[in-house]
Amino acid sequence: MARTLGMTPPTLSRVESGIIPASIETVLGYHLILDVSLQRLFGEHVLILTDTYLKNAEILQDNLLDEKSTTSIHKRLSMLEIIISRLQELQSEYE
């Protein structure tokens, strides 16, 4: 597997042991070659990032709701509703 991914076996072993981080190429290699789901590969990271992004989106939404109502604000709020909904959906999938 290591040679197929373009690295030495000891390097792959360090990646698999968590000693060094996996590159995007290594992660995609596992996904493509071994059919390991991206959810399995990134599950923990997705949940952390989803929480962060959701908090940021909700803060922005609150800030926009406090601003004077304009067409631009309405468009941004509509987009934020879609973003927040998707992030909430992801949260429930990864919990």
Fold and architecture overview:
- This protein has 95 residues and is mainly α.
- It folds into two domains: 1-36, no CATH class; 38-95.
- Helices cover 76% and strands 0% of the residues.
- The chain has four helices and no strands.
- Helix 3 packs antiparallel against helix 4.
- The radius of gyration is 19 Å and the shape is elongated.
- The relative contact order is 0.10.
Q: N- to C-terminal separation?
A: 31 Å
Strand percent estimate = under 5%
Q: Provide mean pLDDT, rounded.
A: 92
Q: What general outline do the C-alpha atoms trace?
A: elongated
Proportion of residues in helical segments? over 70%
User: Structural class from helices and strands?
Assistant: mainly alpha
Gyration radius (Cα, Å) is 19 Å
Uncertain stretches of 5 or more adjacent residues: none
Q: Give a count of the beta strands, DSSP E runs of length 2 or more.
A: 0
**Count of separate structural domains:** 2
Summarize the main sheet.
none
Number of helices: 4
The arrangement of helices and strands along the chain is HHHH
In short, what is this structure?
By secondary structure, this protein is mainly alpha-helical.
Please supply descriptive tags for the structure shown above:
95 residues, mainly alpha, 76% helix
Topology (elements, then pairings):
Layout: H1 9-16, H2 24-34, H3 38-66, H4 71-94
Helix pairs in contact: 3-4
